[in-house]
Design brief:
Chain lengths: 114, 113
C-alpha cells in the first residue's frame, strides 16, 4: 500500500527539548513538504525539498530544521527556538515540483509542548 | 507574495442543499487552484483542481469555477450529503517555478440530515 507515513501520531515534549517528527513515503515522489496546521489558519509551509540533499525554507521556517538524505525520508526537527511549537504537523509529497502535481498528505503528527 | 482568503469559515446546510465556498487570491500570475477536503482526524485529500486556462470544471456533485479577472474561485457542492461534512481548503500555486501552494484558512462544512 503506497503512501506517506508519519510517526508518531501524538508526541509530547517538555519546553526546551528538540523533537524530531518522522515522514516516510514509498510513492517514489521527488518533492516533499512540511506544513503546520493551526486552528483557523489553514496550512502553512515550513520547509520543502525538491530533491535529495536539497531543501528550502517555506514561510515559517524559524525554529525548524530538516534533512533529506534519502528520497523516501524527510524528517522535521522542532527546536527549542520555535516559540509556539504546539500544533498539528502534516508531511506531504508530490511527484515533482514545478508541475501541477497533487500533494499527497500523511496522517499528521500532533505535537504538544508543555 | 501570494495570499489566499477563504469564506465563509463555517457553513451549515441541510442535506440536499447546495454549498458554495469562495476564495480570492492576490497573485494574478497564479495558475493552479486545487481544493482539499479534510475529514475529522484524517489527512487532507485533493477533491478537485482547476488550471487558469479553464473557467469551470465539474466532477459529479462537485464543481469549481475560476474568474481570473476578479481573482477568485469557488467550490460548489450540489445535493449535499452528511458525508460531505468536513473542512475544505482552497489553495493557489504561487509563482516561482515549483509546486508551492498557499492555502486558505479553511471552511468547516456541516451537512445536517
Amino acid at each position: 500500500d503506497g503512501g506517506i507515513t508519519q510517526s508518531p501520531k501524538y508526541l509530547f515534549r517538555k519546553e526546551g527539548q528538540n523533537v524530531t517528527l518522522s515522514c516516510e513515503q514509498n510513492l517514489n515522489h521527488d518533492a516533499m513538504y512540511w506544513y503546520r496546521q493551526d486552528p483557523g489558519q489553514g496550512l502553512r509551509l515550513i520547509y520543502y525539498s525538491q530533491i535529495v540533499n536539497d531543501f528550502q525554507k517555506g514561510d515559517i521556517a524559524e525554529g525548524y530544521s530538516v534533512s533529506r538524505e534519502k528520497k523516501e525520508s524527510f524528517p522535521l526537527t522542532v527546536t527549542s527556538a520555535q516559540k509556539n511549537p504546539t500544533a498539528f504537523y502534516l508531511c506531504a509529497s508530490s511527484i515533482r515540483t514545478g508541475l501541477d502535481s497533487p500533494l499527497h498528505f500523511g496522517n499528521g503528527t500532533r505535537l504538544t509542548v508543555t | 507574495g501570494e495570499n489566499v482568503e477563504q469564506h465563509p469559515s463555517t457553513l451549515s446546510v441541510q442535506e440536499g442543499d447546495s454549498a458554495v465556498i469562495k476564495c480570492t487570491y492576490s497573485d494574478s500570475a497564479s495558475n493552479y487552484f486545487p481544493w482539499y477536503k479534510q475529514e475529522l482526524g484524517k489527512r487532507p485529500q485533493l477533491i478537485i483542481d482547476i488550471r487558469s486556462n479553464v473557467g469551470e470544471k465539474k466532477d459529479q456533485r462537485i464543481a469549481v469555477t475560476l474568474n481570473k479577472t476578479a481573482k477568485h474561485f469557488s467550490l460548489h457542492i450540489t445535493e449535499t450529503q452528511p458525508e460531505d461534512s468536513a473542512v475544505y481548503f482552497c489553495a493557489a500555486r504561487a509563482t516561482g517555478g515549483y509546486n508551492k501552494l498557499i492555502f486558505g484558512a479553511g471552511t468547516r462544512l456541516a451537512v445536517h440530515p
